Amino acid sequence: MDDELFEKGLQIRKEVVGAEYVERSLAQADDFSRDFQRLVTEYCWGAGWGRDALSRRDRSLLNLAMISILGRNAEFKLHLRGALRNGCTKDEIQDTLIQMAIYAGIPAGVEAFRLAKEVFAEVEADAS
Amino acid sequence: MDDELFEKGLQIRKEVVGAEYVERSLAQADDFSRDFQRLVTEYCWGAGWGRDALSRRDRSLLNLAMISILGRNAEFKLHLRGALRNGCTKDEIQDTLIQMAIYAGIPAGVEAFRLAKEVFAEVEADAS
Amino acid sequence: MDDELFEKGLQIRKEVVGAEYVERSLAQADDFSRDFQRLVTEYCWGAGWGRDALSRRDRSLLNLAMISILGRNAEFKLHLRGALRNGCTKDEIQDTLIQMAIYAGIPAGVEAFRLAKEVFAEVEADAS
Amino acid sequence: MDDELFEKGLQIRKEVVGAEYVERSLAQADDFSRDFQRLVTEYCWGAGWGRDALSRRDRSLLNLAMISILGRNAEFKLHLRGALRNGCTKDEIQDTLIQMAIYAGIPAGVEAFRLAKEVFAEVEADAS
Amino acid sequence: MDDELFEKGLQIRKEVVGAEYVERSLAQADDFSRDFQRLVTEYCWGAGWGRDALSRRDRSLLNLAMISILGRNAEFKLHLRGALRNGCTKDEIQDTLIQMAIYAGIPAGVEAFRLAKEVFAEVEADAS
Amino acid sequence: MDDELFEKGLQIRKEVVGAEYVERSLAQADDFSRDFQRLVTEYCWGAGWGRDALSRRDRSLLNLAMISILGRNAEFKLHLRGALRNGCTKDEIQDTLIQMAIYAGIPAGVEAFRLAKEVFAEVEADAS
């Protein structure tokens, strides 16, 4: 593998989803999951997020739409926190989820708004 | 229905996917498809695209990612032309499709890059 | 938006998924979710469910099949209660889920039957 | 396998999608596809369509919604012809596709209306 | 239905997902779910798993990939236990999930590795 | 990127989908598609297919099932030719597609068998 790309991906991954979460994921990796953790970090975060033509804010909004459609709720919540870290406003997230609900259907929208409400409540609780 | 929202949607829809295409869609609508054409214009283009918190460039990039995942090729090509009209650069589109391929899988990416190549060739042919 | 269509949608939505649930959804809506709640009520329930050519029983059966395929479990349970309210019999629901399992695959069917069992138990508990 | 269920399924399959199509499918079956053709006939058409609690009209409308979401265009067109054979009116089909577009997203609806237009034109051409 | 195929399917189903689970599923079946349980046993396990050209190990790996993509988490966990019963090694499962993550996207992979970790912990706890 | 992994992936990719196809894909790559072609070769073929715990025959069968579910027909045909190159027998492919049809639904199976028939005819024509 490519250590430079891994380090770049690791840095971005920590900044977006939180250093604590990433360090725990890597520390808990065992023989079964280590290669996958490495792949996620290097390819998804290094080769994908590390590209130049889109901002992190752009990538967060794309991810919220995509992960909603793919129906992966735990990942959606993680990336919603990431979107807030990347400076996306609530208005931008709202418009993204409404656009997604129109293109991917109302039930996907209902689920996304329900999960978003949970995340906002958790973030507020963390902050207080 | 809401005539004001319909007119707003009609205006945006024409600007994004091309007046000629939209006028043909509406003119060809018959008893079977008229209500759906109306719904698309008012709901998708008026109530969705007509919102303020995202730019048209943002919405085009979201749509390319979402419509790829949903696997609707004709719509993808239409919205890729729309993305160019909305000022998205080829670099932004490239980064969007790579991000999408990582999150939704390589075959979705292969298909999107193949369709994009077709659209770029058509657009160049139109321009010459 | 179109107030008349909203009111029509609100009425149907309450009758199908229960007035209490709908009133809570609307009352709990905040700046982030209010527009989406409005959109769901007006478009999904007004412009969709408010059409004439299918009965509510027909629409409930369609929804059970569609929402199963889309994999949205909370919405599935809500609409299964709605199907009972709309007069669908257990035999009709059973045939719908078996048809869905054949066309969308056995795991979708296993999940739908598991969720249906939960809903029937809850409905019986409510009634006793 | 169960010959009685196969024969029942074969009968229904011919009545719904057309005897000519079914006979060609079975006649063209070779060592590679014969078991699958048998499975489709017995399992899908016998054990599924052969059940009593839904009418053929109900099952056709369910299939149009489900097969749209699943994105299988050739099967969609086949089942749209079947829906007409089963007595579904154009108004019922229109309402089904609009309901589907709201629950599964506008691009699925655009594709379904485009395919339906093709089928209606083919059916009219056949009839003239 | 075909009693012989049902008995064959029942035998395989018990061997793969565990006799206790299968007997409970069938014993708990009521008027609503009995036909579906019968269908799953006869078609999925008899007509599908009962075929000769693939081993049970092959079928388990296929199922892990397919059920991940379909997003059915409870079924995924059941079939992961089945894969271990069918002699799949952890290395084979790891390679299958990495292949799946590349073809169906990173979020599907993250979910599958998370669920696998849960199953391995449960299996170890059962064994101790 | 990692040149060694790229070279390993390139080698496998050529052996599985054909050197001519791969060389054409890479030769035709332009500024828009070059990075994606590189990513596919290194990530999908090097980091994925290059792993040790599954055989190429295993990976081909997984891909046929996965790409069918994902609904990417051109990729399915490419990988079906790859499966034959990797030594999968027609019986193994048949069993894989039947298993897939049961788990992901009959329409996915109908499409896969239709595409397979096309590929087998093309392969025979090439050979004669």
Summary, kept brief:
With 128 residues, chain A is mainly α. Chain A has seven helices and no strands. The model of chain A has no long low-confidence stretch (mean pLDDT 96).
Features:
homohexamer; 128 residues; mainly alpha; 7 helices; globular
Describe the structure.
The structure is a homohexamer of 128-residue chains. Chain A is an all-alpha fold and 128 residues long. Chain A is 82% helix and 0% strand. Chain A has helices spanning 3-17, 19-28, 34-48, 56-70, 73-85, 90-104, 106-127. In chain A, helix 1 (3-17) packs across helix 2 (19-28), helix 1 crosses helix 3 (34-48) and helix 4 runs antiparallel to helix 5. The longest helix of chain A is centred in the last third of the chain and has 22 residues, at 106-127. The radius of gyration of chain A is 15 Å and the shape is globular. The relative contact order of chain A is 0.12.
